[in-house]
Amino acid sequence: MKNLTKIGLFLFAILIGVTTKSNAQSTTQRSGIILGVGPQSNLPLGTFKDAYDWSIGGSIQGDFAVVKKDLYVVVNAGYDNFFAKNDLTNAKDLGLIPVKAGLKYYFPTTNLYVQGTAGAAFLTNKSDVNADKSTAFLYSPQIGYLLNLGGKNYLDLGVNFQSISKINDNGSAVNSLGLRIAYNFGL
Fold first, then answer.
1. Tens-place pLDDT, residues 124-169
2. Dist. CA 175–CA 60, nearest whole Å
3. Which end of the chain is more exposed for a tag (fewer CB within 10 A), N or C?
């Protein structure tokens, strides 16, 4: 857990470093509608890390401005594959399709943002992982930075925490710390 905390703090420091290099001019170039696609990688936390090493996946996200291009409504859908640890017998990878919506807020004069989403995670292989449920509630706060690449193109760098409610009646929540890097383009 200590190493995971260090990784999270390191990624947060990188985000803060990037924001100090930004200028106020880049915030005026944000579009009212931003679409993004990119990979996501997660590190399991808590008891979930006893059975799974890490995950790789991706997501598609739409951001729709509701207040002065500072507050956006967010919709997101994707796929995450958590890889089972090799030393466990009969262990199977866990496939999830998260579908969520929420809000994203950009701090004034920067492209630094906070985002909060909630929704459902659909299990793609319920019987393989001996899950009792095929759908579970999820929530995911995120902090990130939108790096302007010129025009209406952006690179979205985000660090998030994702928590999925129990998929087994006798289990615990599925928690992970994630990194999302997406190519965004404004409409």
1. 998 888 888 999 999 999 999 999 998 899 999 999 999 999 888 8
2. 21
3. N
Structure tokens at 85: 């640890």
Tokens of 5: 């905390």
Look up tokens 């262990």; give the residue. 91
Q: Which residues pair with 174 in a beta bridge?
A: 164
How far apart, in whole angstroms, are the C-alpha atoms of residue 159 and residue 114?
10
Whose tokens are 């995120």? That residue is 142
d(CA 54, CA 80) in angstroms, rounded, equals 10
Cβ-based burial of 3 (10 A; exposed 0-12, middle 13-18, buried ≥19): exposed
Q: HEC string of 156-180?
A: EEEEEEEEECCCCCCCCCEEEEEEE
* Distance (Å, whole) CA 85 – CA 9: 25
User: Strand, helix or coil at 96?
Assistant: strand
What's the predicted TM-score (pTM) here?
0.82
Residue 155 gets the label, from left (phi > 0), alpha (psi -120 to 50) or beta, of: beta
Tokens representing 120 are 């459902």
